Amino acid sequence: SQQGEEDPQALSIQEGENATMNCSYKTSINNLQWYRQNSGRGLVHLILIRSNEREKHSGRLRVTLDTSKKSSSLLITASRAADTASYFCATDASIRDDKIIFGKGTRLHILP
Amino acid sequence: NAGVMQNPRHLVRRRGQEARLRCSPMKGHSHVYWYRQLPEEGLKFMVYLQKENIIDESGMPKERFSAEFPKEGPSILRIQQVVRGDSAAYFCASSSTVNTGELFFGEGSRLTVL
What we know:
The complex is a heterodimer of chains A (112) and B (114).
Chain A: E1 5-7, E2 10-14, E3 19-24, E4 29-37, E5 43-50, E6 55-58, E7 61-66, E8 71-76, E9 85-93, E10 100-102, E11 106-111
Parallel strand pairs in A: 2-11
Antiparallel strand pairs in A: 1-3, 3-8, 4-5, 4-9, 6-7, 7-8, 9-10, 9-11
Chain B: E1 5-7, E2 10-13, E3 19-24, E4 31-37, E5 43-50, E6 53-56, E7 65-68, E8 75-79, E9 88-95, E10 104-105, E11 109-113
Parallel strand pairs in B: 2-11
Antiparallel strand pairs in B: 1-3, 3-8, 4-5, 4-9, 5-6, 7-8, 9-10, 9-11
């Protein structure tokens, strides 16, 4: 299984600090995505990074991908209380018609 | 432009009854995924469907669970003879392309088995 595993499982930081979450996976991938889930809601797509990309930015988000280590990181800069949520990485293996698999997530709590 | 619509949002069933969860993908999307989530846990893949085809059902329990995505109408996740362990949130997601597509999620259907 190429399931991603996020690290840490839970993270609490002060508002304004940066939050970093990591994801490791097992097999070759086409791309890796990060999603956010607010409590009791559906997941929302944040960013997609392709296997031939190393870094991608979107607003306060920065994602890196290291295919040699089979790992990715999500950095949220200048965190806000509204960033409190669970964050999941998702991967699909580099084979045709493969399913998208999610990790167990990092629960991020921003302290006021 | 409606997003992914799931219904019902909440469903209560007694042990032994059937649960039917419906998912209407975004307009133009032909790929549907079903995931199951227990409280404070991640999403567990269940099944991946395209119109009239099951592409991958490796995450579906062998018994009591079935899924379909007909040519017309919503995708249906059906759970027969529910047990208390089936209580969970079931999320549907759709995408327009395979392997490169962003998933768009519904708000989930929360099944409670009494």
